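Q: Convert this sequence to structure tokens.
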Amino acid sequence: MSGTVQDGILGVTDYLLQDGIDSAALDARLIVAKVLGIDKSRLTLHLRDEWNDDQMEGAIILAGQRSNHTPMSHILGYRDFYGRRFEVNSDVLDPRPETETLIAEALSKPFSEMLDLGTGSGAIAVTLLAERPTAVGIATDLSPNALKVASRNADTHSVLQRLHFEESDWYAAIGSTFDLIVSNPPYIALDEMPSLAPELSYEPRMALTDDADGLTAYRKITEDAPGHLAPNGWLMVEIGWMQGPEVAALFNQAGFQNVAIKLDLDGRDRVVIGQKG
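A:
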């Protein structure tokens, strides 16, 4: 049934609401914009345009994926992060707004050589180098498919010549030192996995959990960080909101100074930082 783009948005919204999607209104606008081949910010300009049966069929196919809890970022093929658009798919963790706390902390310190452990989509490393045009870095991941996504994102945002990618189990393939090491490692404990939102089942398990207590990566990262940091260099990691004291204790145990827990915009513990003495 033909109508206007506004009718299409309402139709997709109703479809998603019937399947219990809480973000139905927003998701419907994103889906319709994708079908039209325009950015969501321009959708209002097209509300009175014709909306035909073929467009509705395409939108319902995408809405069906969303009803099965496929993340919107996977349907769209991207996620916006710190003012930039990053390619994402099922090979990488979806960049989330709370990770911008880690970016802000890193950019508050001087650095010229950085290391991103477990880079995933490359959102952290690419953003830091894009914001710090004189810096260079290395980004590691165990997943070769994730590194391909990260490399494409680095190319998109014109930092590929300053960012080297290495398939590595944390520091295993790293021999140099840095004045900044950052990481958003898997921090969800095994017993927390069943309670996660169904959308997370589409993301790589190895990026979500250590299949243990959620602290395995932090033990390795903090223990080996001093050997890969220049004097006065900083280590910064994203954490689960209840892990602050435990991860800070690991920093202290590894000999870091100026250890601090930083809050995200919701007032929750989100990042732990420490400086090599």
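The first strand starts at residue 3 and ends at 4.
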